[in-house]
Amino acid sequence: MTLIVIIVIFALIFDFINGFHDTANAIATSVSTKALPPRFAVFYAAVLNLVGALTSTAVAKSIGGKIADPLHIQNGPIIVIAALISAIAWGLITWYYGIPSSSSHALIGSLAGAVIASSGMNALNWSGFTQIIEALVISPVLALLVGYVIMWILKLTVRNVSPHRVNKWFRFFQIFSAGLQSFSHGGNDAQKTMGIIVFALVAGKFQTDLSVPLSVKLAAAVSMGLGTSVGGWRIIKTVGSKIIKLEPINGFASDLTSSVVIQSATALGMPVSTTHVISSSIMGTGAAKRFRAVKWGVAGRIVLTWVITLPITGLLAGFCYKCISLFL
């Protein structure tokens, strides 16, 4: 029971960090185009993240059961503690340097690394783990393509309208698209924390299935909402201005694209990186408007961070597991 309490505390800390780390992704476009004032945008995102977190549990069940079977694994609670320490450390490091890394990659890589350190490669559920990795890889590519298409359609639609009027229209539309994006973020990302807590509960023999208790839903939703209310201004600057100089039409197209991709993944029960999806949608909409306007050097550094997150967090979690197991 002591280990479970420790796990819940670490999981909610991770969820809180996820909230202020990934808030930037949900509201960066609306803040950078001045569609929403920063303080209101953070509060708005916090409320809708909380609501989104309570909507479903399909993603939580994928995290809780597809990476490894918590019923047939040794030292499950220690595995989860090691994974959470690794994911929290990576989240804080990337937040400090203003890098929009993926909390999803960090958590999934950490859990896989801790499982391997505990029970070897065969302990991973390779079919389920592969499905999750495929979703993480395909979703940003899809966001890039969909963002390009949506922006291209919008360009054709408003080609004879004055730029002033276009900006005015789409700055208004961004109020709704930013809210939809925040709701989508909460619906996918908070479930990852629910899933890791359920994994620990099953591994610790406190429950026998992957159903998510209401108390876990509420705790994860509130924790993410509180984290979101803190904001992540370093990452807002990177996402909102360093990839491309955003205009309201780009911001709306990016928000709409990422919401569609994230909501689709949530409906399928697949955890995706909201960071990857949102950043890729911004790249896609920027490329559709003017390919050279996208700062591909910054985009390349972001992509590099995405690639290295899984192996680094996996190794870090394995190291944490070995250290913790010496004492427990």
Q: Which helices and strands appear, and what pairs or packs with what?
A:
Elements: H1 2-32, H2 38-53, H3 58-65, H4 76-96, H5 103-119, H6 126-157, H7 163-203, H8 214-230, H9 233-242, H10 248-267, H11 274-289, H12 296-327
Report on the architecture of this protein.
- The chain has 328 residues and is mainly alpha-helical.
- The protein has one domain.
- 80% of the residues lie in helices and 0% in strands.
- It is built from 12 helices and no strands.
- It has helices spanning 2-32, 38-53, 58-65, 76-96, 103-119, 126-157, 163-203, 214-230, 233-242, 248-267, 274-289, 296-327.
- Helix 1 runs parallel beside helix 4 (76-96) and helix 4 runs antiparallel to helix 12.
What's the β-strand tally?
A: 0
Q: What is the N-to-C order of secondary-structure elements (H for helix, E for strand)?
A: HHHHHHHHHHHH
Share of β-strand residues:
under 5%
- Please report the distance between the alpha carbons of the first and last residues: 14 Å
- Low-pLDDT parts are 239-243
Q: Helices and strands: which structural class? A: mainly alpha
Number of helices: 12
Shape: elongated
What profile does the largest beta sheet have?
A: none
How helical, in percent, are the residues? over 70%
In total, the number of domains comes to 1
Provide mean pLDDT, rounded.
83
Radius of gyration: 19 Å
Pfam family, one: PHO4
Transmembrane segments: 42-64, 76-98, 104-124, 136-154, 298-319
Membrane topology: Multi-pass membrane protein
InterPro entries: Phos_transporter
